[in-house]
Amino acid sequence: MDAGHPAPAEPGTATAEGPASPARHGSFSVGMDFTVTTAEVFRGFADPSLRRRWFRLPGGSATAEHELDFRVGGGESARNLFVSGDLEQRLAYRSRFLDIVPDARIILVYEAEVDGIRRWVSLVTVELSDEPAGSRLAWTEQYTWLVPTGDGADDVAHLRGGTRLVLNGLSTVVNPDRHPGVRRR
């Protein structure tokens, strides 16, 4: 960094503005039903060409970057530039897969950054189960919020809502009969 722009403080450290915010912990679960098999839903996570169609950070597609190494010990990274009016944010996501049971379970840890500052980290368990009409996905996320937005009152609702949007994207890709006008590739 040049002398006019100090490096961002590591989360959990005091800054010139004051001490670090205490970490906030919590969890939430989101479920989604599919009319396709667990194998088809799992493939939406494992196949890089499908994964890129539904998983990306907010922002323009021209600035989106994505890499996937879907195996235990592998990971995923994504970056994008989000612009809204005068607001411009550099977003980054990095994960590591801890456990993968084909067609049944995925466990991963991830960190989310905004403008180079780690905002939160999460442990996610995705469980897939057979249902009479197809399959069910259960997403359980245990988060630790490191740097809140303002007073942090809306952070968890934003995280939960973003997860729901991402899973809607998965559904659009692997379950197109539920989404008229969407073609399967």
Provide an overview of this structure.
With about 180 residues, the chain is an alpha+beta fold. About 15% of the residues are buried. About 20% of the residues lie in helices and about 40% in strands. α1 (about 40-45) packs across α2, α1 (about 40-45) packs across α3 (about 155-175) and α2 (about 50-55) packs across α3. The chain is built from three helices and seven strands; from the N terminus they run βααββββββα. It is globular, with a radius of gyration of 18 Å.
Question: Which helices and strands appear, and what pairs or packs with what?
Answer:
Layout: E1 24-34, H1 38-46, H2 48-54, E2 65-68, E3 75-84, E4 87-101, E5 105-114, E6 117-131, E7 134-145, H3 155-174
Q: Report the portion of residues in β strands.
A: 35-45%
- The overall pLDDT average reads 86
What multimeric state do the chains show? single chain
- With strands numbered from the N-terminus, the spatial order across the biggest sheet is 1-7-6-5-4-3-2
**Helix segment count?**
3
What's the helix-strand series? EHHEEEEEEH
The radius of gyration over CA amounts to 18 Å
Defining traits:
alpha+beta; 185 residues; 7-stranded antiparallel sheet; globular
Summarize the structure.
By secondary structure, this protein is of the alpha+beta class. The protein contains three helices and seven strands. A hairpin with a 2-residue loop joins strand 6 and strand 7 (134-145).
